[in-house]
Design goal:
The protein is mainly α and about 325 residues long. Helix content is about 70%, strand content about 5%. Helix 3 packs across helix 4.
């Protein structure tokens, strides 16, 4: 094992992390457009940036039901998760090309973990595709047999728990692929190689992400996220008031449904702008009470990721010998 080889592998892995993250975002946004288009929505555009979240803009007619809206929204994060699971499993096949196996496990790790974190944080903080998909079925402006808070709490616990389990299997499978480049005679050498390659590659990618100034609800850790629910409720309440002015004899439940549909129907690419405009309006009016916010979810996710990875490292010797196939050229 030479330092030059370690350095070259780290650079290649960093590039793969960035490439697979962009492919994941492209699939995410394309999935929105494909499913919404098949279900009758108007398609308005696609954007995939160098870092951070993109958008796939679509819009349904006002009388479209909840199910098409839900499916068109939830397919985005699910494309990350399903794509990550599939490529993780494919990486276990003993292809002759070790580059192919490295690409597959990198895609699986980046997108499965990002998809689960996005799904969990979106539900927890009430923002993005997961939260809007839930609103399509459970608008906050009318009572339901099952509370939306109960649904989001249970779903968040399940999703973030799955994050830790996924970290175990992804780390195990990554270590098996790592053996193709750096055969290790001991667990200590295997762990040192991981620290000298994968850890710096991830750190470089995160650093570049932060320096780019990009933002993502995937990584919310508090802050203005405490305003997500007040902004949402205000926008829907404003929609109800406008609907009642246009339809004075309308049933309250129907007005609620139409206002929730209009809220969900906002172009994904325009959500952040409308959110910020409403937030500025609420702050300028001094609307009480000031939201208290929630405990940050990211440290919990990080702890579960670390736990899953450590458990995989403890069992890495056996797993590597079971999963490593033919060496590649």
């Amino acid at each position: 094992m030479t330092w030059r080889r370690l350095f070259g592998f780290t650079v290649a892995l960093t590039l793969l992390i960035w490439i697979t993250s962009r492919l994941g975002v492209a699939l995410h946004e394309s999935s929105h457009l494909l499913v919404s288009g098949l279900l009758g929505a108007d398609i308005a555009g696609l954007h995939v940036p160098l870092f951070g979240d993109g958008y796939g803009n679509f819009s349904f007619a006002g009388d479209t039901g909840a199910t098409p809206r839900f499916l068109a929204l939830i397919i985005g994060p699910m494309s990350h998760i399903l794509g990550g699971v599939i490529t993780m499993l494919l990486s276990r096949i003993p292809f002759r090309s070790r580059w192919l196996r490295l690409f597959l496990i990198t895609y699986g790790a980046v997108n499965l973990l990002a998809g689960l974190q996005y799904l969990g944080s979106g539900l927890y903080y009430g923002y993005g595709d997961p939260a809007d998909a839930l609103i399509a079925y459970l608008p906050p402006c009318r009572p339901h047999p099952v509370s939306a808070d109960v649904v989001t709490t249970i779903a968040t616990v399940v999703v973030i728990g799955t994050l830790g389990v996924s970290a175990y299997f992804l780390t195990r499978d990554y270590l098996a692929v790592q053996e193709l480049w750096f055969p290790a005679g001991s667990q200590r050498v295997r762990f040192r190689t991981l620290l000298l390659t994968a850890v710096p590659a991830v750190a470089i990618f995160i650093g570049a992400f932060m320096l780019s100034g990009s933002e993502s609800p995937t990584f919310y850790a508090g802050g203005d996220s405490r305003w997500n629910e007040p902004v949402r409720d205000y926008q829907i309440a404003t929609g109800i008031a406008a609907d009642l002015r246009a339809h004075p004899d309308a049933d309250a439940a129907d007005s609620c449904r139409r206002a929730a549909n209009d809220y969900v129907n906002v172009f994904i690419g325009d959500r952040e702008t409308e959110h910020q405009q409403t937030l500025n309006e609420l702050r300028s009016r001094g609307v009480p009470p000031e939201p208290t916010g929630k405990l940050p979810l990211l440290p919990v996710s990080a702890a579960l990721l670390a736990l899953g990875a450590c458990l995989a490292l403890l069992r890495s010797g056996r797993a590597a010998h079971e999963l490593v196939g033919h060496d590649a050229n």
